[in-house]
Structures are given as structure tokens and as C-alpha cells.
Amino acid sequence: MSEKFKFFAAEFPDTPGVYLMKDEGGRILYVGKAKSLRKRLSSYFRQNARHTPKTVALVARIRRIDVLLTSSEKEALLLESGLIKKHRPRYNVVLKDDKQYVLFKLDKRAEFPRLTIARKTARDGAVYFGPFTSAAAARTVLKLLGSVFPLRKCADSTFKNRVRPCLYHDIRQCWAPCVKEVDRDLYMDMVHRVEMLLSGRSSELVETLQSKMRAASKAMAFEEAAVYRDQIRAVKKTVEGQVAVIHDNRDRDVIGLAETGKGLGLGVLFVRRGRLLDEKRFSWPGLTLDEGPEAVESFISQFYGPGRYIPSLIIAPCELPASPLTDILADRGGAAVRIATPRTATEKRLVSLARDVAGRVVEDEETITVRLQKALRLAAEPARIECVDASHLSGTDMRVGQVVFEEGRRSKEASRLYSFPELEGTGDDYAALASWARRRLESGPPWPDLVLIDGGRGQLAAVEKALSECAEDGCWELAAIAKGESRRAGELGDVIFRPGRKNPMGLKPGSAELLFLQMVRDTAHRFVLGRQRRARKKAVLNSELTALPGIGPKTARTLWDRFASLDEMAGADIADIAALPGIGAKTAARIHKALQGLKASRNN
Questions:
Q1: Are the beta carbons of 567 and 582 closer than 8 angstroms?
Q2: Residue 100 pLDDT > 60, yes or no?
């Protein structure tokens, strides 16, 4: 074991920056930022410092401290947040569950706007509403609104190329502005109603609709009155789960802290125009209320990242250290943001409600990652699981698909597809998996806590051998999932292999742990096969396209960037094609004629 770290203040600059505390293996234990690196680091090593148990444990494990200098404290805060998300240090407050929130997006710049579900905000002129922690609940609301407010449902590309109304028009859930003459003023009036509902002005909307319903009834326009009646019912059903908690129209998020039996809990209330829209809870084992300000500051900097809806007011349960956090949030959200402690009795009551949310712990409920740690006898909880599956087509087109699950939920943007031209024609799954392991090491962190391999002992051994070539970074936990022999009459079960064990792990058929691993394996299998089929189909279509006169590889790429299919290309007019970069009017006419000929030949 290496010697204990000796701290000398003179070795560190008195400037803003980020510090990385590392253990004897070079792994990052903690990432912090400081206005003065020398003063902040000195506070860890003072003899009379009253540290929390977490800080005492951290200091005991430090063997090296690296620093990254920045030009300002604001830049240091941004760098710290990025490094925490990338490396997920053990002693940092790491926000694990920050990807499942959904928003409603209303693009009012379009001639005929539509309502969609989005995961991120953008400075695109659209209006965003939310957030909702349940995507299923948000889709239910979207479906309900779509059934009574007949806004268009199709994407812009489809809207421009449609030649006849879709099924939604047939069931009276869309006015079909794509192909029919629709009064835009009437359409925008309906858009305004949807916006009123989603922005929290439901009471005002109901009164307006009731007035119009009564007027239609007096005019003997009963069908029109029935439409208003259905809209009133939809509005009431949409907001029935929302509780009025404050009497103003301001958006605010309210944060509360509570100590639990497992550590520190943090609850967030999402209040929109005075109504409690949703709530969420986070927890960090081992922390205490003494670390509350640090936890809240770290939470805010990670949670309200780029693309997240940021309200104008965030109520914190405690005073936060002076930092440029509000400036960063203003840059991300495009508007001024204030972080404040509760002042009024109502705000204090909301913080108390958030504290109650933070303290809700089901002591006997274990997450799937904790259960996997116990079932597979892992050294640590597998917060990040990477599953890989090798696939080829009769020895050709060798690929390895990689899917990622974080905290039991899939992270789609982290999926990767690896191709291996050097293995073309071999059909060697073992060599492909070994090559994947080497390339995965080269790609760098974030490292997986568990690698799940679709295969048996042979595939497991191939990956293990490749990883052993790099002792420092290659010591990941491994497991393989393979089809097993029948455990009951007529029943097949999957088995799990681990390195160093001849026999499979004793996971019971139908157990939550095995079902989860099967789901992860199936996801990787579908991903790699789907990507292979898509690539093969596109290659066939591309060869069909480049065979047409006047269309070469460069023009084909331009067309594919604009249109999703050959049918969309054939449905486009000459002006649409001429608007593409590098294509003039004469070339567009030739391409249009060639596409029409291709469409005719495919229909015959």
C-alpha cells in the first residue's frame, strides 16, 4: 500500500480551478471546484478541522491530487459538473436519475402547430410545458388532448408530402390541414386553448368553454356544443391530479432535504402556475444534513443541465455558498433565475412538503442494481451495465452491439455499434468480442460496473482475456448469459456465468434479477440486429438510387439527409429538390423525373 498523501499548500495555486482527488489505483474519488484551490484544499488537511465522517473517509484514501486551472469560478463550476457526470466519483453527490423527465412541446412558429413530447428544451421558438416524471402519464395526457383538440399529429416532413388525409382525420381527431383548406384563425384558437390548459390556466379555460357551450346550445348548434362539452371534460380530467398550492402564476421548483435511515434524501416539487404538477426524490447513502448545502448545489448544477426546463425561481432549503450558479442557469435557460430560501409562510410550507417527499423511504425495498450485486456477488452496485452481443450475416458484416443501462434504465444515447472489417468472412464471435473489449478500453470512461455478454463460457473467456491485457482499466466485473438446459419438463432457462466459476450462478428462473438480465440481453440483441437490417436495407436502396441517371453518391447522400424514404423523395416536387444544397433547377428536374420513373417501376 502506498504512503499516505502529504499535503503542502505551496504546491497548489491560489487561483480558480477544479481538483481531482485520487486513490492509490489512480481512480477519481472526488471532484471539487474552488475560487482558490490552495485555500480549499488546505481546509481538508487542517489538524483541528471538524470533518464529517464522509470527508474523514475521503481524506484517508487520498494518494494524489490533480488540479485543472480555469479562468473564473464560473468556468470551474461548469467543468466540475461535467467531470462528475463523466467519472461518477464515489464521494461526490452524483445525480443518478436525471433522464426520464418529459415535456410537452408546442411549436407555435409553424403555420399549423402540433403538440409533441420532448426530452429537452431548445431555443427554437417553441413553448415547453412540464416536467413530468412519468412518460406513460404524459403520453396518456397527450392522447386525451389529441382526442378532443384535433391538432395535427404528423411530423413536418410528412405534413409537407402528404397527399391524402390520414386515419386521425377519419376518426375526427385531426382537421387535416396538410391537404384540406383549414381556417388558420380557428386552428390557432384551438392551439391557444391547449396552451392555456398546459400553462395552468385551466379554470379560465373551463369558464371560456362553458360560455361557448351555452351560446352554442342557445343557437341550437348542438354538435358544436357537444364538442365544447367534451373539451371541458378533457380539461377537468387532465388537471384532476394537480393540487393548487400557491396563489400566483409563477413557475418554481421547491427543494427539501431530510435524513433517512440510508443517508440523505432530497425531494423536488415542480410547481407550475400555482399548481403542484409533479414531484421527485433522490437519495445519497452515507450523507448527513451537514453536507446539505453541498448536496443541493451539486444537485442544481447537474439537474438543470442544457436542455432542461429551468423555472425563474428555485427555492432551496438552506443558504448556498456564494457561486456563479445563477449565472450558469440563466445562460442555460435563456432567462434570469433566482435561487432563494423560503421567505413566506406558503414557501416554508412547500419546503416542508418537499422535505416529506425526501424522507419517504421504503426500507425493505431494494433496487434491481442492489439485488444484482447480491445475486452475482459483485464488489459494488452495478450502477452502469453495458451489454454486448456479436452478430454477423453468414460470416459477413461482423458487428458488436453495445447497449447501456444506468440505474436500471436504458440510456439510448449511449448505445454503440462496432464494426470489424478485418474479421469479414470469419464469423468469429470470440475474436469480435475480444476486439470490442480492446476498442472499449481505448474509448475511455465512463467505465461500466458490469459487462454482460450474450454468450456462454467461451465468449466470457474471450472478453476476460482481452481485458486482462490492461490491468489498470480492464478489471471490470463480467458476466455472460446463455441458454441453459431444461430445468423442468418442456422448459428452457437462461443461465449466468461468472469468471472463475465452473458452474453457472444460482439465479432462480423467474427471479427479478434473471428477468432483468434477460431483458438487457434481449435489448442488445434487438439493437444489433436492427442496425444490421437498417444498414443492409439502406445499402440496397442507395444502390437503387445511385443507379438512376443524374444521381451520384454525393447527391444520394444529400437526398437521404432531407428525406426519410424513397417514397418521400418521389413525393417531393421539383422546388423541394431544387432547394437542397448543390442542386439547381435543371438537376432537380432530372432527379424528379428519374424518381417518378423509379416509383412507377416499383408499383408495377
A1: no
A2: no
pLDDT in tens, 558-594: 777 677 677 777 778 888 888 887 787 888 888 888 8
DSSP states of 547-598 = TSTT--HHHHHHHHHH-SSHHHHHHS-HHHHHTSTT--HHHHHHHHHHHHHH
Q: Most confidently modeled of 60-69, 355-364, 389-398? A: 60-69
Q: Which of 43, 48, 52 is nearest to 12 (CA)?
A: 43
CB 497 within 8 A of CB 504: yes
Give the rounded percent of residues in the chain with a pLDDT score beyond 70: 89
Domains of the chain: 9-87 (3.40.1440.10), 102-241 (no CATH), 252-358 (3.30.420), 369-529 (3.30.420.340), 547-603 (1.10.150.20)
Dist. CA 448–CA 459, nearest whole Å: 18
CA count, 13 A, side-chain hemisphere, 197: 28
What's the rounded Cα separation, in Å, for the pair 309 and 361?
27
Bridge partners, 69 (sequence order): 17
| Helix H or strand E segment including 300 | helix 292-303
Q: What is the pTM of this model?
A: 0.61
